[in-house]
Specification:
Blueprint (H helix, E strand, L loop, with lengths): L1 H12 L43 E5 L5 E5 L8 E7 L5 E8 L17 E10 L2 E9 L11 E8 L12 E3 L4 E7 L5 E6 L3 E6 L9 E9 L2 E11 L23 E10 L8 E4 L9 E7 L4 E8 L7 E7 L11 E5 L1
Antiparallel strand pairs: 1-2, 2-3, 3-4, 5-6, 6-7, 7-8, 9-10, 11-16, 12-13, 12-19, 13-14, 14-15, 16-17, 17-18
Length: about 325
């Protein structure tokens, strides 16, 4: 069985379709004793599950007669979230569907796009119970719409009995791909993916040229992206403000010191030129909100606006994440100044 555990580790660490065999029956009323074990060495071929079984989540459960269980995404299909079981990672049987009754998740009927529905389930076994965490996604809604994501979990004491799977239990989180972790002290944590947005509110009244305060996306002292409010002579702008400016700016003469927004970057890779835009006159004396968000998988957005008026926040620049993280958009954030 240790050898089977090692195979499972390889299975989870690689593309799921790279090892395995298909030998399954589509009878979801199977019982635990129906699972077969192939004795001795043999030759087998990919894939272990033919057809459409994306985002597999697999566990090995010694308490259930050394059985492997796998769950997969089902999107808008019903019955949904198929569970397969195996004793040897080669012979697999479809034993149940977690989603097998419409009343378990009525909202599944409202998501009407091929990429909507159940995304990337995570299957776990803890406290004599099988747990399945997943997200019901309405892919027609915008990523920033909180109602796009419905994070849920199901539980069952007997995975072979479809009726033992509970109705969906909902929990609040704006994102997807939830995965639970049980700590030794009994606390349960859930990690997940989400389009993050962080901001700082800034009360800053500079008095000297080049005084600056702001926010930075930081990897090391040689890799960082900075957006700040800086006191510079009027006329230092390298670009116009990207939105309406408002306010009375006629009193500011060429060369007078005035607040500006400045974006600067440092990296071993080529970075955008320094960007300086005038601070809108309508924002004078206001608490400012500086914000960094994940625009998508490859870019950050740097934005600014009055803290009291979210609708006036303007994107100053979009920047590739390659300058900090070489292809992913997680980072450390801190205030500067």
């Amino acid at each position: 069985m240790k050898a089977l555990q090692n195979i499972l580790l390889g299975l989870l660490g690689a593309s799921f379709a790279q090892i395995g065999v298909f030998a399954q029956d589509d009878d979801s009323s199977a019982e635990e004793g129906d699972l077969t074990v192939e004795q001795g060495n043999s030759t087998y071929f990919n894939p272990i599950f033919p057809g459409f079984h994306p985002d597999p989540s697999c566990i090995f459960v010694p308490e259930w007669d050394d059985t492997f269980f796998c769950a997969a995404s089902s999107f808008n299909a019903f019955p949904g979230i198929p569970i397969h079981a195996s004793k040897d990672l080669k012979n697999w049987r479809l034993i149940a569907h977690v989603l097998n009754r419409p009343e378990q998740l009525p909202r599944l009927a409202e998501t009407n796009r091929s990429t909507s529905g159940i995304w990337a389930p995570t299957l776990r076994y803890q406290d004599d119970t099988f747990w399945l965490f997943t997200t019901l996604v309405d892919d027609e809604k915008a990523p920033e719409d909180a109602s796009r994501w419905d994070n849920i979990f199901f539980k069952a004491e007997d995975p072979f009995d479809e009726l033992s799977w509970t109705d969906a239990i909902h929990f609040e989180f704006e994102g997807y791909d939830p995965s639970p972790f049980w700590d030794e002290d009994g606390k349960v944590y859930v990690t997940a993916a989400h389009a993050w947005r962080v901001s700082v509110d800034l009360d800053f009244a500079p008095e000297k040229e080049e005084e600056e305060a702001g926010i930075t996306a930081f990897l090391t002292q040689n890799h960082h992206l900075d957006l700040g409010v800086v006191y510079l002579p009027s006329g230092s702008e390298t670009a116009s403000f990207p939105g309406p400016r408002g306010g009375d700016e006629s009193a500011v003469e060429e060369g007078d010191l005035a607040p500006h927004l400045r974006f600067r970057a440092m990296s071993y890779l080529p970075v955008p030129d320094t960007l300086v835009v005038p601070l809108p006159g309508a924002w004078a004396g206001e608490t400012l909100r500086l914000e960094i968000s994940a625009k998508n998988n490859t870019h950050y957005s740097f934005s600014a606006g009055p803290a009291s008026a979210r609708s006036q926040v303007q994107t100053i620049i979009d920047v590739s994440n390659e300058h900090l993280s070489w292809g992913f958009n997680g980072l450390a954030l801190q205030k500067m100044g």
